[in-house]
Amino acid sequence: MTLTAPSPTSAPGADDAVVPVRRVHVTKRDGTQEPYDADRINRAIERAAVGLPDQISKVTQIASELAITLFDGITTEQLDEAAVAVAVQNVKDDPDFDTIAARLLRKVIYKRVLGGYETDLELALLHQARFPGYVRDAVEDGLLDPRLVTHFDLDALAAALDHHHDERLRYIGTVTMRNRYMINDRHGRPLEVPQYFWMRVAMGLSLNEERPTEQAVEFYRRIARLEYLPAGSTLVNAGTSYPQLSNCFVMQMDDDIEHIATSVRNVMWLTKGTGGIGLSVTKLRSEGSPIRSNNTTSTGPIPFMHTIDSTLRAVSRGGKKFGALCFYMENWHLDFPQFLDLRQNSGDPYRRTRTANTAVWISDEFMKRVAADDDWYLFDPADTPDLVELVGSAFSARYAEYVADAQAGRIRRFRRMKAREQWTAMLISLQTTSHPWLTWKDSINARALNDNTGTIHLSNLCTEICLPQDRDTIAVCNLASINLAAHLVDGELDWDRMRASVRLAVRQLDNLVDITLSSVDESERANRANRAVGLGVMGFTDVTERLGYAYESEEAYELIDRVVEFISYHAIDASADLARERGPYANFAGSGWSKGLVPIDTLDRLEADRGVPVQVDRTVRLDWDVLREKVAGGMRNATLMAIAPTASIGLVAGTTPGLDPQFSQIFSRATSSGKFLEVNRNLVHDLQRLGIWEDVRDDLLAAQGDLSAVPGVPEHLRAVYRTSFDLSPYAFVEVAARAQKWIDQAISRNIYLASRDVGEMAALYQAAWERGVKTTYYLHMKPRHTAEQSTVRVNKAEVRPGAGVGGAGGAASAPTTTPRRGFGFASAAPTTATPVATVRPSGVDGGPAPALVPTTSGAPAAPSAPSVGATAPARGGFGFGRVASPSAVAQEAAPSTTQPDDAPSSAVVPDVVLEVTDVTDVVDGVACPVDPMERLQCESCQ
Fold first, then answer.
1. Which of 653, 640, 535, 632 has its CA nearest to residue 590?
2. Three-state secondary structure along 471-519?
3. Domains held by the chain: number
4. 3-class secondary structure for 236-273?
5. Residues 155, 176 share a domain
6. What is the CATH number of the domain that holds 423?
7. Which of 638-647, 824-833, 925-934 has the lowest mean pLDDT?
8. How far is it, in rounded angstroms, from Cα 940 to Cα 942?
């Protein structure tokens, strides 16, 4: 390893001096070693940077930073991962580095699945040549459905594969696909490249078609172009040997021990199949309620909820993460105060839920009593059993009768309180624990077009599903989402393409109902009888930014109104056409559809029953009269639309989730697939067009991604790129209300609020109810948020004597096998002499919230970062994405006391400092993801 050479300064004949020369060898997969070939690596980086501006400087930056991470004996896989990680850590400077990282990572995937290649043509031929064998082998191994071999022309499907669609995938999307959706063999070896994955999903959703090969190709082309995507459970299981494809399950627990036990069993099976669950416990009698069969009293619903919460943790979702469930309770239940405490950190752990979420099912009667400052009575469901089934004015009338019975002493177990007292308790709990989510039962039931099959008692895990259920029925919904950003072409929405995407998505969802399997009979029956689907949207904020609209503007409100009307119209039309082709759903007769009603018609019904105006714009742009006549003739699906959060598939699509605004323009995202640096490409491109990106980049990073705190930015861009806490929270309500009038189900609507004033919260949620919003989801409060910041630069001029070639404070050493989380490299990987991380925090976990600064709009702005003199250990670095403990960071930062035999005694190494903004949410001293979509993927929550 050590070579001797004459010193360049020595004259001939002088004493020879020796200069140690460091050589690095790469360990190949077969265990043999070869000298590190820098030219070969540089060519690979060059290919990954093809077509990007300033290609040479980007390649040089990655190659030079990669060189300082190398150590002798590095494996080819470690080398690939290091190259990707170096590209990722530069994303803060230019999103083009994300493109390079994604290409490098996909090359790793290609090599592992398809083998080596040199040219693009070779890659295309490998995709096609190996596809039929991949399907046949996976079927033989029991991984894929045997019908994928018998029902399809595999050669024709292989010919349709186009690996150039991979260019649409960003780095985080590629990692998410690989870690969450693409299948491995029994030994954990990857079997799919992205286009195999898309085709497998398309095949799995075409099994019931008369011409399955043709239909699979059509589905494939749409989803491979990311124009719409099926939801997570569908992507995981489509085409596999166990096609559990449905996404949402909504069930109610009855008040008897047999049904409680059955419900626990059903939760276990549905959780195993990766479905998200909503579970109503309103029917369960309250604590202390007499049980006549054995002359004892009930323990109430809380212990049973704790049992189910433990069940979620015991049965992991397909090995991916804990089960996901939300409990629902109506707020007249006598045990509702205990329900409010379920998510508190303190208290009896046996009366808390650590995994399951909670939501409250609120009546119009309660909202009116809050407005009137009237009394509110809590009852035992054993005394008031019919309240669960009643809605609207019928509920109000019967509730008043029970109140009179309580006042007359005919009901003995009740509690009286001010409605505003309970309303305040809900809001305080929502503020401190993000639970319970607020949902409105009468808005949902009065506007339901599938109202002929019973009362809707709850929503689902993410609050967007509105389906009836009873003792023998577990309602099921099947989801997909239109990617609005993929339909924006040259500054205009391509309405023809969107129409085609909507119609194809509805057909694919209807196919899913016939193909999916369920381990629970109650859900299987409901799925086939109602064929409920929920087509949603994602990328709304992505589109508004690219069009130059502020989220809080009439242009944005008009956009969401027009877009959702268009999607709703054509989804309903497609379902009516499918009914003519395949027949209407079993429960069509007697439904609102059968009476010629469409979603917007139900606003009048809600308003009449409520007796309070629904305050929402009612502009109509399309000819709904023609569609009313058509739907009366038959509908294939009981429901058509629901806007889900799109937490994971939004990452794959590379767009903003659901209807959510940007949380920050630069922030770190921690998901179950790793830790990622997110930079808003739209903002960077706008700033680059103005020629000021280089000037404001560091200021934006220092401002934690808040553009309003960056000087020198034009005012119109500040408006377009206002982040979630800088927007008026009423903008979120208005966007939801405009969309909701066209949607037969509901919207998973996150709310962001900069103030902790309970009065402001009350007014905001009151406004949501008045505008006809059916449900809300997480509430995110600004004062919880603090941030850690660190700097990230590679100073190639600075040298530090006594450091080894491998990295900080020591010579290159053999790799350790510390498990690592981040950037998708979750398996054991080398630390390779980790560089020193210099951390300059702008806040500390659990510390006081920074003061809010009023803005000109009246809404509090993001706080300025307080100055903190002390340093703190890094949570994790973006160089290799490893999340280390403070002690581990300190240990790595210390000089190494060991060196390999051939290490030079006075080598020099550039000083590497990691730089990234790491934003965290601190709740009761516990750090949680800030980005709302991350909460759905956080291992500690779900």
1. 632
2. CCECEEEEEEEEEHHHHEECCEECHHHHHHHHHHHHHHHHHHHHHCCCC
3. 3
4. HHCCECCCCCCCEEEEECCCCHHHHHHHHHHHHHHHHC
5. yes
6. 3.20.70.20
7. 824-833
8. 6
Compute the distance between CA of residue 37 and CA of residue 294 in angstroms, rounded to an integer.
80
| Residue 551 sits in the same domain as residue 508 | yes
| Both tokens assigned to 462 | 């993410």
Regarding whether 280 and 212 lie in a shared domain, the answer is no
Q: Whole-angstrom Cα distance, residue 873 to residue 633?
A: 66
Same domain, 583 and 438: no
More confident of the two residues 319 and 659: 659
Mean pLDDT of 289-304: 91
179, 38: one domain:
yes
**By the 8 A CB rule, do 920 and 927 touch?**
yes
pLDDT at res. 293: 81
Q: Which two tokens stand for residue 907?
A: 């080598």
Among residues 237, 331, 460, 530, the one annotated as catalytic is 460
Tell me the pLDDT tens digit for each residue of 366-417: 999 999 999 999 999 999 999 999 999 999 999 999 999 999 999 999 999 9
Q: Is residue 464 among the annotated active site residues?
A: yes
Note whether residue 468 is domain-resident. Answer: no
Beta bridge partners of 470: 473
Residue of 482, 509, 486, 484 whose CA lies nearest to 169: 486
More confident residue, 844 or 667: 667
Residues near 364 by beta carbon (within 8 Å), at least 6 away in sequence: 392, 395, 396, 440, 442, 443, 609, 610, 612
Q: Up-side HSE of residue 925: CA atoms within 13 Å toward CB?
A: 3
Please state whether 639 falls in left (phi above 0), alpha (psi between -120 and 50) or beta. beta
Amino acid present at 291: I
Catalytic residue among 90, 266, 445, 462: 462
Residue span of the structural domain in which 58 resides: 29-227
- Helix 521-530 and helix 257-272: axis angle, to 10°? 70
Q: Please, where are the H alpha helices in 353-494?
A: 364-372, 392-407, 419-433, 441-446
- C-alpha separations of 524 from 126, 155, 236, 448, 533 in Å: 40, 34, 19, 22, 14
Domain boundary among 427, 446, 465: 446
- 176 and 306 co-located in one domain: no
Indicate which residue of 81, 330, 464, 522 is catalytic.
Answer: 464
Give the pLDDT score at 674: 61
What's the CA gap between 840 and 134, in Å, rounded? 50
3-state helix, strand, coil in the chain (%, to 5): 45, 15, 45
If you compute the radius of gyration of the chain from its CA atoms, what whole number of angstroms results? Answer: 29
DSSP string, 358-372: EEEEE-HHHHHHHHH
Q: Distance (Å, rounded) from C-alpha 49 to C-alpha 60?
A: 11
Please provide the DSSP assignment of 32-72 as one string.
-EEE--HHHHHHHHHHHTTT-TTHHHHHHHHHHHHHTT--T
Same domain for 215 and 232, yes or no, is no
Q: Is 248 a catalytic residue?
A: no
Amino acid identity at 175: V
Over residues 440-463, the pLDDT tens digits come to: 999 999 999 999 999 999 999 999
* Partner residues linked to 35 by β-bridges: 25
Query: Using one digit for the tens of pLDDT, what is the confidence trace for 848-897?
Result: 333 323 333 333 333 333 332 333 333 333 222 332 332 332 333 333 33
pTM: 0.83
Q: Are residues 436 and 507 in the same domain?
A: no
Q: Which of 619, 654, 689 is the last residue of a domain?
A: 654
What one-character DSSP code corresponds to residue 771? Answer: T
Q: Quick check: is 451 in a domain?
A: no
Tokens 């172009």 belong to which residue?
A: 225
Note if 140 is an active site residue: no
Nearby residues of 8 by Cβ (< 8 Å), 6 or more positions away: none
Q: What angle do CA 406, 409, 412 make, to 5 degrees?
A: 70
Task: Give domain status of residue 455, yes or no.
Answer: no
Q: Does a structural domain hold residue 793?
A: no
